[in-house]
Specification:
The chain has about 220 residues and is mostly beta strands. The protein has 2 helices and 10 strands; from the N terminus they run βββαββαβββββ. The chain has a domain at about 30-145 and about 195-220: Gamma Fibrinogen, chain A, domain 1 (Gamma Fibrinogen, Chain A, domain 1), CATH 3.90.215.10. The longest helix is centred in the middle third of the chain and has 8 residues, at about 90-95. One of its GO terms (biological process) is blood coagulation.
Amino acid sequence: MPTASSRSFPVAGFPKDCSHLRKTSSSGVYVIQPAGSPPRVVWCDMDTEGKGWTVVQRNSHDTEIAWKQSWTTYKYGFGNVQGDHWLGTEYLHLLTQQGTYKVRFVVRDKANVTHYAEYDIFRVENESSGYPLRLGRFTGEGDDYLTGYYPKKGGIHDNMKFSTVDKDQDQYSGNCANSYGGWWYDRCQNVVLNAKKYILWPGFCDKGDCMSSLILVKPTDVC
C-alpha cells in the first residue's frame, strides 16, 4: 500500500488542458491534468473561436450555488462543471504555470447579447503570494476594466490578491468579498463575476444585471 508521500501523479494519460483535444472534439466534460495537479474534471469549450478553451468559471444571475465561500473552498473548486462552478484557485495557478496562457471573459447582458474581453496573458500566482492575478494586453469590446485603473469605481484588478469572506486581501477598509464572493478585489471592484444575483461589467451591465458569465483559458499565441 503506497504512502501519501510515495504517491505521485502520472506523467502521461490525460491532456494538460483542453487545447490538447482533437479540434474535431465536441464541447463537453473531459478530464485534464495540469502539471503538478491531480486529474481534474472540466468543461472543454470547442465551439468558441479558436477552440480548445478550458472553462474555469461559469455563473448565471439566478444561480443556485453560493459564491460567498471560504478560502479553502475556492482553493479546491466548487459547483458542477456542467453548470455554474469555479475550477479552484489552486488549479488555476497550476494550469497557468504550464506556459503562457490567455483568457477570455464572456458576459451575456439582459438583452441576451454576449460581450467579451480578452487578455493575451493570464496567470494566477501561488497561494503563498495570495493567488494574485497577472494579465497582459487587452482586446475586445468596451473599455479595459481589469488592467485599467478606475479610481471612481473599484480601482484595478490586475496584480490584486484573491480575497474571500475569511481571507481579506483587498485594499479596502472592509472586506469586499463579504458582499459578493471570492475575487481579485482592490477597493472594491470594477468587475465582479463571482456573485449571486449580481454579475457586473461596466458598459454591458452597469447594475450587476448580466445574465451569465464565463471565463475561458488556453495557451496564448504570443511567444
